[in-house]
């Protein structure tokens, strides 16, 4: 899921995370080197674009962690040209800068807060989980625990969103309803997964994801 975001958000879902060596050359991607190598090899083995393979892995990962069945499109074209640097929010970004960065890319504050819910299944570099149910996408655990500072560890950027006037109510809403989060996350993921691509030229293969 993280690889999908890091490939798309800087500019386009085009496989440049792997093909332009962004996994090796950029500090924010260093942890993903093993998965980048694996996905690159799989794309070659199955004769599909690297960009599509990254998004396929994300869609399968969401399902494997108990999340909603997300849309999965194929037909993206690969690029070995690096996307812009410095566009990804950092783990210490305040709420206002995150909202602004996402708005610039066409995302709402609701999209932003929904997407960070993917952290529910993640870990820090110290292998500490971001809520008490690691590897499970459960909004009713992640959002309340982050707000109440009850997690094994948290990203400062997430804590900021949980307390910001602009995003606090959205945060609480997802914490109160898994169904609400599922719907918002599914739409936000779909929007993210086609960044820089013409949806009319992509094929909907969502039925393949389970």
Query: Over the alpha carbons, how many angstroms does the gyration radius reach?
Result: 16 Å
Order of helices and strands: HHHHHEHHHHHHE
Structural class: mainly alpha
- Broad CATH class of the largest domain: Mainly Alpha
Task: Give a short account of the largest sheet.
Answer: 2 strands, antiparallel
Uncertain regions spanning at least 5 consecutive residues? none
Q: Determine the oligomeric state from the structure.
A: single chain
State the total count of DSSP E strands. Answer: 2
Q: How much β-strand is present in the residues?
A: under 5%
Please tell me what the overall shape is: globular
Q: What fold name stands as the CATH topology of the largest domain?
A: Peroxidase, domain 1
Determine the mean pLDDT.
96
Helical residue percent band: 40-55%
User: Which CATH-level-2 architecture of the largest domain?
Assistant: Orthogonal Bundle
- Work out the count of structural domains: 2
Secondary structure: elements and pairs:
Blueprint lengths: L1 H7 L7 H4 L2 H4 L7 H13 L4 H15 L8 E2 L20 H10 L4 H7 L23 H9 L8 H8 L4 H9 L1 H16 L9 E2 L6
Antiparallel strand pairs: 1-2
Pfam families: peroxidase (PF00141)
Keywords: Heme, Iron, Metal-binding, Oxidoreductase, Peroxidase
Family: Belongs to the peroxidase family. Cytochrome c peroxidase subfamily.
What can you see in these coordinates?
Residues 1-124 form the Plant heme peroxidase family profile domain. Keywords: Heme, Iron, Metal-binding, Oxidoreductase, Peroxidase. By secondary structure, the protein is mainly α. The protein has two domains: 2-86 and 192-208, Orthogonal Bundle (Peroxidase, domain 1), CATH 1.10.520.10; 95-188, Peroxidase, domain 2, CATH 1.10.420. The protein contains eleven helices and two strands; from the N terminus they run αααααβααααααβ. It has helices at 2-8, 16-19, 22-25, 33-45, 50-64, 95-104, 109-115, 139-147, 156-163, 168-176, 178-193; strands at residues 73-74, 203-204. Strands 1-2 form a two-stranded antiparallel sheet. Helix 1 (2-8) packs antiparallel against helix 5, helix 4 packs across helix 5 (50-64) and helix 7 (109-115) crosses helix 11 (178-193). The protein is globular and about 45 Å long. The relative contact order is 0.18.
């Amino acid at each position: 899921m993280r690889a999908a975001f890091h490939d798309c958000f800087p500019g386009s879902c085009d496989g440049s995370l792997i093909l332009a060596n962004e996994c090796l050359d950029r500090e924010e991607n260093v942890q993903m080197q093993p998965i980048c190598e694996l996905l690159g090899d799989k794309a070659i083995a199955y004769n599909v674009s690297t960009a599509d393979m990254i998004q396929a892995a994300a869609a399968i990962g969401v399902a494997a962690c108990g999340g909603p069945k997300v849309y999965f499109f194929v037909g993206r074209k690969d690029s070995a040209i690096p996307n812009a640097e410095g566009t990804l929010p950092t783990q210490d970004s305040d709420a206002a800068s995150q909202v602004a960065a996402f708005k610039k890319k066409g995302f709402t504050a609701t999209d932003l807060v929904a997407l960070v819910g993917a952290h529910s299944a993640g870990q820090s570099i110290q292998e500490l989980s971001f809520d008490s149910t690691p590897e499970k996408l459960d909004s009713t655990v992640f959002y309340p625990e982050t707000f109440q500072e009850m997690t094994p560890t948290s990203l400062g950027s997430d804590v900021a969103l949980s307390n910001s006037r602009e995003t606090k109510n959205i945060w609480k809403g997802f914490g109160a309803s898994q169904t609400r989060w599922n719907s918002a996350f599914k739409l936000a993921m779909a929007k993210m997964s086609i960044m820089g691509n013409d949806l009319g030229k992509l094929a909907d293969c969502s039925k393949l994801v389970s």
